[in-house]
Amino acid sequence: MSIVAVLLLAGELIRAPNEIPFDSGAIAVRLKRGGGVRWTAEWTMAPAEHQGRKAVRFTEQGRGRLHPYMQDVRWSLEALWLAGDGFRPLEFEKTVTGLNGGVLAAERKRFDPAKGVVRFERIGAGGRSEVRTLETAADVLAVEGIAGVLRFLPFGRFEKFSSHILSNEPKQYPVTFQPRGRERVETPAGAFECYKVEVVPDAGFLNLFRLFFPKAFFWFTADPPHFWVRYEGPESGPGSPEVVMELTSSKARTTP
Questions:
Q1: Structural domain of residue 128, as residue ranges?
Q2: What's the rounded Cα separation, in Å, for the pair 200 and 39?
Q3: Are 184 and 193 a contacting pair, CB within 8 Å?
Q4: What is the rounded distance in angstroms from the CA atom of residue 197 to the CA atom of residue 233?
Q5: Beta strands in 51-146 (DSSP E)
Q6: From the centroid of its chain, how far is CA 49?
Q7: Which end of the chain is less congested by CB atoms within 10 angstroms, N or C?
């Protein structure tokens, strides 16, 4: 294993840049097996602070057929990660509404890195509530904003690293991120030479889990600042539809 990978496992995972960029863009999502656009979304990435500590904030505004809903919905998402030496998930809020504006679900996740737990709250249609507290690994990553975090991997200089992903279920899964070389990718935003990264279920976990966990891949531009341009895999965890997410437009800037 490379020195870089050892450092990542030691807790630095993915180093945050000195200056968090102001980025924005749009994506389109379709089923991997084919068909038209399933949903679309606009996203932003911007520097932030949390209790005097450096952080990064991601937002998403989307519309369409989002799992597990059987009708078109709208949603808004805000994700806050600490961004000191490395990235750590912190606070997440998501609200899903019907096209008529009625709230279908409101979700919150609050990570406590010191205690190694995450508090999950969900209020569904009709006011039904669910509250859970889960233990989390020190290297846990959240699905919300993960593409914006993985773009800061030391591409071309790491072999692999192990981590855990907290899915939308919510459940925590042990995984390994492995580089899969470079390839040219065609997206609605253009053609890009990209680094490809696979998310591999941990070999020490149940074989049954490996059988039912579809392969997942991310593509990032080979040229800095390594924009995310494509994802293939489960939409929101095991059991959700396999989809292709692609960048349709993006804009990078150094000021708000």
A1: 3-253
A2: 26
A3: yes
A4: 12
A5: 53-64, 73-83, 87-98, 103-112, 117-124, 129-135, 140-142
A6: 20
A7: C
194 in Cβ contact with 183 (< 8 Å):
yes
Give the position of tokens 């192990």.
162
Question: 78: closest CA among 37, 108, 50?
Answer: 108
**Of 63, 58, 105, which is closest to residue 77 (Cα–Cα)?**
58
> From start to end of 143-241, where are the E strands?
161-166, 172-187, 190-201, 216-221, 228-234
Residues forming beta bridges with residue 173, ordered by sequence position: 165
Distance CA 114, CA 134 (A): 14
Residue whose structure tokens are 């509250």: 131
- Please report where in the chains the tokens 């708000």 appear, as a residue: 256
Tokens of 69: 């809903």
Query: How many Å apart are CA 89 and CA 198, to the nearest integer?
Result: 21
The number of angstroms, rounded, from the C-alpha of 125 to the middle of its chain's C-alpha atoms is 25
The residue type at 149: V
Q: For 17-75, how does the pLDDT look when each residue is reduced to its tens digit (9 = 90+)?
A: 999 999 999 999 999 999 899 999 999 999 999 999 999 999 999 999 999 999 999 99
CB 153 within 8 A of CB 141: no
pTM attached to this predicted model: 0.90
CA-based nearest residue to 233, from 208, 209, 198: 198
Contact 158, 5 (CB under 8 A): yes
